[in-house]
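Tokens in:
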């Protein structure tokens, strides 16, 4: 630890002199924190940032400490110094809630309470005042606020890994940190993706916020159950991060907090310290976007009467089981699937039918199955295994009721198409017009999208040759109907 005391106003000249990882005692004034002076201190570094947790009452107590001349002081904050080509950036590692409480007050975000604590004596009574009131009535107090200095430690030349370790293991007691707060501090593409997708300006439509009622300013998630609470402790981050983990690691295997956290660390270090999207090979946004779209479609397809059931775990299971079916069969009718899922939910939760009483919990020898609605309290292999066991059992009884359509993923080969073209007299099947080799396209007479059960197979008997242009027009139309449509068009022209 260096003994040199560094004032924020003079920090730059000191930090230029070393390339070693060091720390220095110092302080930062409120004026510097709220000014446009360069380099500015980034108080919103997302790696160390929760959503706003501090209550109004807590913020007001911070301001009482600033305003009063008491023995209490605002605890030390921690700032990382980042050098880039002879320029500097300051990044707040720890102390965000304290600092933003002061900044919010200065920017007019809230007023002081009407309590006796804020009658400071000597004719100074700031009860109920905001920053503008204080400036107009007590300019000396206004000056005092901006002149208040907060003790800090400056850290130079720390790597991303060293900074994350400092935040997690030194500055914060891991026993008091939520597991997702620890994951959030691990730098890399995945952590950044989760932050951007779940909150801030780029968040997914799936996580749209609304207000609980017309009077309260408390936000809730528009598309989920109200039991999916938002307390500012990265609940949405955790939900999305878990969803990705379960997708990548086989959701039927379950998840634990320790395994999840270790995976976040491991996966982001595969490509080095930066953790860019290129470091992950196939694991990037292109892989995640289909999951994003499917998740939105499934959740927003939930009937209003079942929306209250969309708790964090149930919504994850709804998405993951459906995504599994879609990938297995090729096509899933979303609204049909969602209705069936909740139909199974009700059927296996019924205390009248008690179907669960004849079954065991997954992986157990003598543990009776719980009602279906009771299975969504844990994400271990036993709970998830039991949920999927019930769904698999119902799926075997009636696949169609789940909205699955088996798609023949095969394509016609070029030799097959050419042979069929020659059998057709080198003419378009639908129009009878001559067709050049360069313009031929193989088409499923019964559309592949109709599914295997309805004849949408990649077999020679279902192959006709047409032009590339007509092939694009036909899409999901049956060959009979398409031919009729073309004949009607020809008659109209004639």
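Residues out:
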């Amino acid at each position: 630890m260096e003994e040199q005391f560094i004032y924020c106003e003079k920090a730059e000249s000191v930090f230029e002199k070393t390339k070693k990882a060091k720390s220095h005692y110092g302080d930062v004034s409120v004026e510097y924190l709220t000014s446009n002076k360069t380099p500015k201190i980034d108080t919103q570094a997302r790696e160390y940032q929760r959503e706003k947790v501090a209550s109004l009452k807590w913020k007001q107590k911070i301001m009482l400490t600033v305003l009063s001349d008491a023995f209490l002081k605002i605890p030390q904050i921690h700032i990382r110094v980042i050098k880039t080509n002879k320029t500097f950036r300051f990044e707040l590692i720890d102390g965000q809630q304290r600092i933003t409480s002061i900044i919010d007050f200065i920017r007019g975000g809230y007023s002081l309470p009407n309590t006796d604590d804020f009658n400071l004596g000597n004719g100074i009574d700031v009860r109920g005042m905001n920053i503008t009131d204080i400036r107009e009535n007590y300019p000396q107090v206004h000056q005092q606020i901006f002149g208040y200095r907060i003790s800090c430690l400056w850290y130079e030349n720390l790597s991303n890994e060293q900074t994350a370790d400092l935040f997690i293991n030194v500055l914060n007691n891991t026993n008091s940190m939520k597991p997702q707060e620890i994951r959030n501090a691990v730098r890399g593409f995945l952590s950044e993706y989760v932050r951007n997708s779940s909150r801030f300006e780029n968040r997914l439509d799936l996580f749209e916020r609304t207000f609980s009622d017309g009077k309260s300013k408390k936000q809730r998630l528009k598309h989920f159950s109200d039991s999916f609470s938002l307390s500012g402790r990265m609940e949405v981050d955790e939900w999305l991060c878990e969803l990705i983990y379960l997708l990548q690691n086989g959701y039927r295997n379950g998840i634990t907090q320790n395994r999840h956290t270790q995976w976040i660390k491991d996966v982001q270090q595969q490509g080095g310290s930066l953790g860019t999207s290129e470091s992950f090979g196939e694991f990037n946004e292109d892989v995640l976007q289909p999951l994003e779209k499917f998740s939105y479609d499934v959740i927003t397809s939930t009937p209003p009467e079942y929306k209250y059931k969309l708790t964090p775990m149930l919504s994850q299971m709804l998405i993951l089981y459906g995504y599994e079916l879609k990938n297995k069969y090729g096509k899933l009718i979303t609204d049909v699937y969602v209705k069936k899922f909740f139909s199974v939910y009700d059927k296996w939760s019924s205390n009248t039918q008690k179907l669960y009483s004849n079954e065991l919990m997954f992986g157990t020898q003598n543990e009776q199955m719980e009602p279906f609605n009771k299975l969504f309290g844990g994400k271990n292999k036993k709970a998830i295994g039991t949920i999927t066991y019930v769904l698999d059992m119902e799926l075997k009884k009636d696949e169609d009721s789940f909205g699955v359509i088996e798609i023949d993923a095969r394509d016609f080969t070029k030799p097959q198409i050419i042979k069929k073209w020659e059998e057709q007299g080198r003419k378009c099947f639908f129009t009878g017009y001559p067709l050049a080799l360069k313009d031929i396209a193989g088409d499923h007479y019964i559309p592949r999208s109709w599914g295997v059960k309805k004849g949408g197979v990649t077999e020679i008997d279902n192959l006709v040759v047409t032009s590339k242009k007509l092939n694009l027009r036909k899409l999901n139309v049956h060959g009979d109907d398409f031919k009729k449509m073309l004949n009607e068009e020809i008659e109209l022209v004639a």
